[in-house]
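Subject: sequence -> structure tokens, single chain

Hey, anyone have a minute? Need the predicted structure for the following. Not urgent.
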Amino acid sequence: MLGDIEENRVFRSKKELMTCLSITSMRKKFQYKVFKSNTSFIVVRCVHPSCSWRVRANKLIESEYWMVTKHVDKHTCPTDFKTTRRRQATSWVVGECIKRRFINPGRVFRPRDVMDDMKQRYGVELSYSVAWRGRECAYENLRLGTPEQSYNLLPGYLHMLMQTNPGSVVNLEVTDGNKFQYLFIAFAASIQGFSYCRPVISIDATHLKGKYRGVLFTAVCHDANQQIFPLAIGVGDSENDAAWTWFLKRVKDVFGENPALVIVSDRHRSIRSAVEEAFPRAFHGICIYHLLNNLKTKFKSKNKELEQHYIAAAKAYNLQEFHVLFYTLCSAVPGAKEYLESVGLDRWTRSHAPCRRYNIMTTNISESFNAVLVKARELPITAFVNEVRLLCQRWFQQRRTKANGCSSRMSTDVEKKLEERRDRAQTMDVICADQYTFDVVDGDRNYCVDMALWTCTCRKFQLDQLPCDHVLAVVRKTQYDPYDLCSLYYTREFWCETYRGVIQPIPHISSWVVPPPISTFQLNPPDVRTVAGRRRKRRLPSMGEELTTPKCSRCKGKGHNRATCQNPIALRQSEPGPSLLSPIAGASSGTELGHQTDPSPSMPPPFAAATAPSDVGHPTDPSPTMPSPIAAATAVPHFGQTLADS
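Reply:
Had a minute. Here:
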């Protein structure tokens, strides 16, 4: 709130002065008109010719500030000279009034909500078109200008990002005519933290929904607490070989490559060729759920047993268990064996993988990261990048606090998992063979545990680097410390080190200090053919993907959720007692009381759906229980340096 107009009050700009005048007029229920205005002073008066209310403000010398020099705060106009529609309630004024409502891109504020809000706060009745334009003006504040202005603002934003977060890597590529092509960002905090995460990277791409569209590339991994750890993002024109190869080469330059590295993705052809070129020594695994959808589509099967056997075979740890499940799967679906073997058993099964995938068999963490940004992906490029920074900044701070407050040696999630395995290990028998070798009997099966080699025949111990049930059964009988048998990737120390880095905020655009080579650089939007009509916001389903219809928890209907439900809900009805028009309890008919029963009463019964009681003296509630109402490009490897050189 800007407050009221008063003499000697200083405003930062003429627009701020006019905004304050408009809000004051709406709040105090009057209208004004501009009597005189130029670049040095402004005079406004009440619209009534005989009213003495007026304001004069002058611009301060050699400054953009304006000061109120005269204010007659007295209205002599008639009291009935007021209307609910006011000339000062323009779209940009409405936008200034409601812009604080848009604290994040996910906020839903319809034009009807704008109309109701302005009516409640200022008593102003708006038309739908003014409310819609006012909301768009408020959106521009969140979006940092129009889409075209956002691209022009991007170079300065990237420069400030590198200044406030030293060590961050930013790469920008443009085509002829300084048109945007590719963008890559990796925060310094993410680069430092990856050394303490398991070397399994999940990559994925999703569409941007702004005016110039494009594709968002993401690379994420798991931290010690099984949470999403963002590594890098990229923006390109589409999912093609050139874009994926460019993005993955930037990922390799920043995070490096080692023989234990695993890349997990879907079966997109461009991803496969890009991984082979950018990460020739890394193992490329496939998301088992994407392959399952391909399997369903190819064999046109919706058999639940197919899904169960496939998932169990993909997640099996030892070869014997895999062969049993795989044989069952191939027997149920003829042709599945040849199809899955052509894909490569090592790429989608845990038991055949040459490297440790730990528990990361899908790209769910990438899909989840994309889902968090679903509303932000509608913003222009600079506002979108800023939302990603804010999200990562918030995640790092919250998880740093949680990790520093952990009192156990392992992370919270791993500690809980170990406790569950300890409980199951209580029922197992342990037979010692020698100092290091043990036979563990688990029901009708036995497993061999070698504490010298850190192995168990179930293979969970060596593949997940976390003690399995059988190892914990041995620990219970011996003096081994179970925490010494866990990988360092799960420890509290690695968890804290992962989030030791801080993603620093970026000041407001008015405080940016950008050198001339960058500030004068004109970045233009990419060449995109804009299709007429409303842009698609819902994604197209993948092959074999089964779409689920949302169900409302309020009315139990389908096709919407509780937040958008508009169906009327009946109140819960109480237990019906004896009606004034119903027979007296205990009487079977009116003739027993000496009165003839009228078969068609003139008044309707209290409950329109009421039926005859099934038992004398105990009327049956005729209505069911209702639900509760509340239930060819110029490469820019290092942005600042390249622009300076150009």
